Structures are given as C-alpha cells and as structure tokens.
Amino acid sequence: MALAHPVDIQGEGAKAPIHELDLIVNGMHCAGCMRKIERGLGELEGVSKARCNLSTRRVHVEWESKTLTDRDILTKMKDIGFEATPFDPKLLATADENQARRLLRAMAVAGFAAANVMLFSVSVWSGQASDMDPETLHLFHWLSALIAIPAVAYAGQPFFASAVRALKGRSLNMDVPISLAVLLATGMSLFETIRGGHDVYFDASVSLLFFLLIGRYLDIRMRNRACSAAQNLMSLRAVTAQRILADGSYETVGVCDLLPGDLVAVPAGGRMPADGEVVKGISHMDASLVTGESLPERVVPGTLVFAGTINQEAPLEVRVTKSDEDSLLAEIVRLMEAAEQGRAGYVQMADRIARIYAPAVHILAAGTFLGWLAFGATVHGALMSAIAVLIITCPCALGLAVPVVQVVASGKLLRLGVLVKSADGLERLADIDQVVFDKTGTITTGDLKLRAATGLSEEERALARSLALKSSHPLSKVVAESFKDCQALPLESLVEMPGMGLSGRYQGEEVRMGNAEWVGGVEGHGADTSGLWIRKGSNTPKWIAVTDTIKEDAAAVLDYLAHDYRTHLLSGDREAVVAAQALHLKFDEVHAQQRPNDKIAYLERLKKEGAKVLMVGDGLNDAPALRAAHVSMSPAEAADISQTAADFIFQGKNLGPVVKAIRTATFARRLILENFGFAFLYNAVAIPLAIAGFVTPLFAAIAMSSSSLIVTANAMRLNWERRK
Amino acid sequence: MSALLFLIPVALFMGALGLVAFLWSLKSGQFDDLDGAAERGLLDEPADED
User: Fold this and answer.
1) Is A22 one of the catalytic residues?
2) What phi-psi label fits residue A94: left (phi over 0), alpha (psi between -120 and 50 degrees) or beta?
C-alpha cells in the first residue's frame, strides 16, 4: 500500500514533506458523511487538508507529519465508520474528465463571443433600416470579426477534431456538415469584411457553436458520472493476501503475486483475495457479488469460493485455484468489456440521418455553384449563393432535434425517479420488444421477511429472539426483528458456531437455532424458502421460514408489460424458490440457476433471433448481461458496477419507474421524429430561397433561430403530457 | 456616435470580465463536485456535537 507519495516543496520555507493520499469511499452519501470524514481526518495531528468529493465518492487527504502514515488514515476512517480504499489518482485520471473541462471552457468562450457578436449584428440590422453610415458598419464588421475568429478557432475544435476523425475513417457524422458550415461562414464573412462587403455571418457561426456545445457538455457530464463509478469498482478487489508458508508462518503478498496452489488465510470480515477451494474452517460467505443473492452461502472444506466475496464469520484457509487475472471477478470485467464492444455497433439516430443529410447538402451547394456559373454569374456571386445554401442548411435545428428532446426527457424522468445515464439510452429504450428481469433485488425487494413460524410456542419465539440478538447473520436479524414484541430471555453459555448456528442454555436446557444439521431438523425442508430451525431441549425442532418479498407493484407492472412485450425472468436463485415466487407474476418465460455467462448466452440468443431486449437487473452478476442487452435498467440499490453498466437507474422500492421510462422514451422518439420533420420542412422552404440567392444575413439569423426555437418548444411538450 | 467609442470598449470589457471570472472559477475547481457543493449548503457549521 505504498500509495502515499511525498511531494517536494520547491523554494524556501519548506518544512516536513507533504504527503498525499486519495481514497475511494463508497459509503459516502450526504453532507453529514462529508462532515464526519472531513472533521474526523482533520482531528489527526498534522493533517492539513481533507476534502471530500461527493460526485466521485472520493476523498483527498494531505498531511505534513512524519509520524503519520497512510495506515493511520485508513484506521481513522474505519473508526469513523467508513470503508476506504486507497488508489493512485494518476492511474485513474481519465481523458474524459479533461474533455469535460475543455468543452466547458469552449462553451464559455463561444457564449461570450455569441453575446457580443450578436450585439453588433442587431445594431447592423437595425442600422440598415435607418441611417447607419458605411464607416460604422465597417467598424462593426471588423469588431465582430475580431471577436468571432479567435472564438471559432478555439471553441470549434471539438467539432473539427471529430469531423477530421470521421473523414479519416472514410465516414460522415453530424460534425462534418457542422464544421464545414462554421468554417465557411466565418471564412466568407472575413473575406466580405476585408472586401468591404455588406453581408457577414459571424453571428450565425458563433451562436451555432454555442448551442451545440451546450448539448455536448450535458452529454459528456452524464457519461463521466458513469465512468467514475466504474473506476471505484476497483475497491471490490482485495489488495493483499496472507499467504501461509510451509512452516506455518504468514507472509503478506500482493494479490497479483498469488499462484494456483498457494494456501491463503482469510480472516473473518476479510475479502477473498482469489478464487479457490476452502481447505479448513466453516463459515458463511457473502457471495452476492457472484450470485446476486442477499443470503450468505455456507462454506465448508471443499466448497469453491470466489475473489471479492466476503468471509463473514470465521477464519478460513483457502487453496488458490486460479491466478488473479483468471478469477471470476476479472472474468466479469472482461465479459463486460466484450459486451460493450458489441454495443458500439449501434449508430445514433442523428448520425444515421447525417449519413444521408451531409452528402445531400454538399451536393446541393455544389449544384448551386455550378448552376449559377452556367447561368453566367460571376465566380464570386456563384460562390456566395453556394455558401448561403450551406449556412441556411447548417444543421442547427437538426443538431438540436435530438439533444433537446433527450435533455427534456432526462429532466422529466429525473423527477419521476429515473436517472438517464447514456444519452442514446432513450433512443434504444424506444426500440425494445422484450423485457428480461432479474429476480432478487429487482422483482423482489431484497429484504428478507418472516413468512411462516407455525407451531412455535410463545417461549420458543422469545428464545429465538434472544439467540438471534447475539448474531449478525441476516437470518438472525430477520428473526430478531419479527419477534421483537417478545421479551428477551436470559441465556447462559451462549456459543455461535460459524456456518452452523447458535446455542445457549435456558433454565438448564440446551437451546439450539440454526441449520438442519446443527439443530437436528429435516434436511431440505422447505426447498422453496430459506429459513432456520429452533429446538429447545429434546422438543421437536420447529421451522422458521424466511422469504424475500415481491415488490408491491410487480404484478401490475408485468400485467401492463404483457400487452406489448414478451417478458422473461432470469434468476441465479434455486429452481424451487424462483418457481414459487414467479407463480403469480405474468412471465412468458422463467429460468432459474443462471450464472453470469448463462445470462449473457440467453441474451445473445434473443439478439440472434432479432429481439431488442431491455434488461432490468441489480447484482454484480447481472452487470455483463446489462451490458449485453440492447438497453438496461438498474435499481438505485444495485451494486455500483451494475449501475455503471446500466443505461438507466431508477429509484424507489417499486417497479413503476420502468414503465414510466419506457413510455417517456416512446414519446421522446415521436418528438424527435417530429423535430426532424420540422427541420426538413424548414429546409424545404429555405433551400430554394438560398439557391435563388435571396438569403441575407438577417434572413439567415431569423430563420435559423426560429427553427431552433420551434424544435425546442416541441421538445417541451414532454413536460406538458398529462400525468396519468 | 462618439458615445460608441467608449460604450463598445465598456461592453466588451464587461463581457470579458464575466468570461475571465467563469474560467477562473472553473480552474479553481468550483465545478469539480457539484453534488457535494449542493449538499454542503445544508451543513450548519458552528453547531456540531458528534
């Protein structure tokens, strides 16, 4: 953990070197957490700076003391109640973060230029109607040029770079006509200014850049948020492992140095450093990472365990079977990357239109130029008309048609409790014809509830609660909570047997609670639920059934979806449990015991059959499937990586937002198509005028801004849609 | 018309001032953690007993 790096202070007055440490703190959620962390770390001697970043869930600490180490900082974080993982910011500093800043700077410059150039343009237009003398007009043109040219050179770079990339790849995107129009409008205006001409289009080029940059910035901000969550995933990995040497002593090694065959010790509460097989010890593992199930899995010698899962109860000795890069966790990450590439083939609607639109516009402009030449116009006159065509067709409305609707739709969904993470997610959501659900945490709440405790006497209930209070196992917590109106009884010689259960003495008799083997119950009882046994003295053991509850509106949502979509249930849970829970829900297909790669295979099969699938899931085990699906949603309680993989995140304990999101997406697509319709209608009117040479700067400015306004106003209809 | 001679520089100067202020705030990290900034407003600085 040699991540704290001293920084040399240059110049005089340097005292102790400053150490820096960056931490990922996933448990930080609100102002209270931030204050607790900043105050807590600030109390340490020598700490000069502790700053939380809530957006990225990271903390930056600086200190000057020689005695303080990064280990002390981590201990302190643990004391305050936060699990922190150190990381090297240099490895994680993404290109995207810088890109967002560049876009914001470009937007600021374009905004400044647009406002000031517009100031001159309005004077020029009104001056043309009254008494502006040629000298003032000329001065204003030069001032506009002075502001617009540097601004275009700076703020236009994101578009120019993207257009060049597209052209190099021998394809066309929306940025090609945008760049061309901006450059031509600026270049021609400069030429006209020097010539002392009448018409300049500086205002059109900078305000176009400004509007488009706003859309770009919003888009990249959504994507950045997703990326930082993905990087925080690294905190799921154990950093070091305790290797057991031949002589029985321990040695601390990095996880990547572990080899198959090594023996490692995993303490209670520790993360499994590698995939392996338990050799010694009995315990419960929190395997939600792999199976998505909330209930811990019991492990005994011989059980296979996976990297990243958490050992909950007792120390284990594990024989490593796979090296770090072959572990299941690494496999999941690889599956995700592979699925991601598969999706890269999706072309956004705007780009699909650009592929037709860009050549059409350029051919029109070239035709105008040649046409005017053929009819005997001067080269200058023909060129002016051709450029006017390019400017008037400049895809201002087209460029806004999609982003405006997406931003309005995202805003509306946010109010409904759905976060839209990828801009094109809305487009893809409108395409779907099938919906695949995960079970635990998606269809069910993921909270365990007592289902049946028949035949338990009042005393047994009280005993169950008394025993359960002493254990932190999830089942015990449910029992303690369910029987909370019972009086806790005094128990003696209380023992917790890891992986088995609890025992204690009450009034001279032994009381046991736990699994069938421990208590003496019937193995395999209640295969369709989870639960535990309790026995007092020599009485017959009694079964306490605990089950996961189905979300309140799940049945209604599935009824609704069944009208238009095919629905599937894919679960990692046992066959009997899944069948029992899916009984009253309208699913077309139900599949149990699905591992991450099974889920992917299932989705791939649907894709091959031509289906467009929406995947709704929450566990880390669903992450690759979320990526592989055409579009995906994840509840807000989901594992971070699933939220990263999903296109939408919905809040609340209900499934209702899924339906709302689908409906909004469908409506949004209709609006986008209408917007394209408007843009084409506008072009159909304006292009003939431009070809005929009737377009003046005032006409261009009015036509362009009014078409943009119509497109924006149309998008606002999303908000007016009556809530049903 | 001579009013333009100082009105235009004044307008441009004020616009540039706004631009510089924005670029400065961007550079000094005020846009790095928008969520955190929103939450921090809720903190009641002086009163704290935990």
Assistant:
1) no
2) beta
